[in-house]
What we know:
By secondary structure, the chain is α+β, with helices and mostly antiparallel strands. It is 52% helix and 15% strand. It has 2 domains: 5-170, GAF domain (Beta-Lactamase, 2-Layer Sandwich); 186-229. This is GAF and ANTAR domain-containing protein.
Amino acid sequence: MAFSLEGMRGELGSIMATSKPGLGVANDLCGACVDLLGVDGAAISMVYEGSSRGTFGASSEASRRLDEYQFTFGEGPCLDAAVARQAVLAPDLDSPSEGRWPAFADAVLSDGIRAVFAIPVMVTAACVGALDLFRASPGPMTAEHLAGGLLAAELASLPLLDLIASTEPTGTAEDSWADLEGLDRVEVYQATGMLISQLDVDAPEALVRLRAHAIATNQTASQVATAIVERRLVLERDEPGHGGSA
């Protein structure tokens, strides 16, 4: 069913009014994007200081995994959208002229996704993330669908505001983000701490090694982190990213 912009506005507004606050409304908003915007998946990425900090809301586990690739590889449209504070559109990741995010693009294409669109999510003057939209078939978004995506990204700031309000920040934006970091990818932070001790490295090096193993074994960073935390995987000191099998 095709929706006009006003129709999309009404549907999205209804979702915001009737869904459970916080993560519930974020998930429902992403699901509504699939129904309204001609895409096959949607996720809300939290981004801070140029890095992916978590997935807050997704239309499905597959969409959550697609967003996870951006954290794993440290590249992707949501990161660019957050930095530029404008929509980043990739209508055909398999096009010879599309050279952005090679690692991310390879992973997403392997999952059957050809087009990705990212729209920044703003809270007042700060960009806190992006709404990622995924589609299996290549091609640009229609003007109406893009307008609907911009509206959805604007509404996506509301559950994030609810999330911030529900924490106990110590007074600064940086402190609030530090509180939010613990709400997703907890296993990554736990695994990084374990690797600091096991490998005798600092935190950045520990995260590099975790990501390297994820890339080498075709997993997400969260999958590798979970295996480390559960002690099913031990990374060797002299082989970054190549320890036991997860």
